[in-house]
Amino acid sequence: MLHARSAGKLAQAVQEAALSLRPVDSEATFRKPPTPRIAFDPLLKPVGPSAPLEHLRLVGNPVIPRRVDQLALDKVKASRALVELYEHGYDVYYLQRLLSAGTLGVEKRFVPTRWAITAVDKVLGDYLLGKLRDKPPIQDYEVYHSSYIGNRYTLILMPRAWSMEMVEVWMPYSVWVPEGQAQVYTVHEEHDGKPSAEDGGYQAIRFAVLEELSKRGKQASVLAVRETTPEYFAPVGNWQIREGVRNALRKGPAKASTLEEALEVAARLLLTPRREIVDRSVLLRRLRAQRGLEEFLEA
């Protein structure tokens, strides 16, 4: 990672533009004409033609909030700055930009965009989870669903202490599976909040769910299924995962009184056979084992 303080005038212009809440007019000089190509990435938004930059000058006035400017000047840990700005209502995408441009933190280092996106989701998710530790669980089983540009999100929220699992199903002939059978990938975490693997998509889902639970002042165990269909022919970035889950949670739930009923509701929304999800899910196996133990002790 490049230290922002030693990067010169070009970096300063980039940082000023990143700090601004509104787009800033600028003039740029390139070393050679932009290459006419479009690049796709599973984490980042599509990138258009690009070229090495020679000079960059801002010709508009950046709109920088006073507290943001103070945090950019102070030697404050990036995690603390992110939480403070989030609590003051600043958009998560603005925070990603601030971190990536090296405006936050003690060392003020530029951060690769994909790292910044996942870092913001993780920092804010961990913060929200900490606030929920002593909150009561939700009362019912809740099933949510949404679909966006070839990605289908089905979530089951269960009335238990926090834990979470993502089951990601890449359907045949989708962007990562050109043919053959569907590929299934899982990440899970227990009550300690430590995921079994580092995954940007998982962190995007986790943040969106914790954001909603924080608004309600409740905790839950969460099973999130993402199905990537052939309609998703080119990756557009993690933002669609975050917004897809947010959209599902905004729609409101179908409620159930038992886990089996919730699974039946979810099965009607899934393209993947229910048995495939159940067999792959670490979370469901653990919950069913706990239920069996509880029934045995009550007998």
TrEMBL record:
<dbReference type="GO" id="GO:0006281">
    <property type="term" value="P:DNA repair"/>
</dbReference>
<dbReference type="Pfam" id="PF04894">
    <property type="entry name" value="Nre_N"/>
</dbReference>
<dbReference type="Pfam" id="PF04895">
    <property type="entry name" value="Nre_C"/>
</dbReference>
<dbReference type="InterPro" id="IPR006979">
    <property type="entry name" value="Nre_C"/>
</dbReference>
<protein>
    <recommendedName>
        <fullName>DNA repair protein</fullName>
    </recommendedName>
</protein>
<dbReference type="InterPro" id="IPR033167">
    <property type="entry name" value="Nre"/>
</dbReference>
<dbReference type="InterPro" id="IPR006978">
    <property type="entry name" value="Nre_N"/>
</dbReference>
<feature type="domain" description="Archaeal Nre N-terminal">
    <location>
        <begin position="8"/>
        <end position="176"/>
    </location>
</feature>
<feature type="domain" description="Archaeal Nre C-terminal">
    <location>
        <begin position="197"/>
        <end position="296"/>
    </location>
</feature>
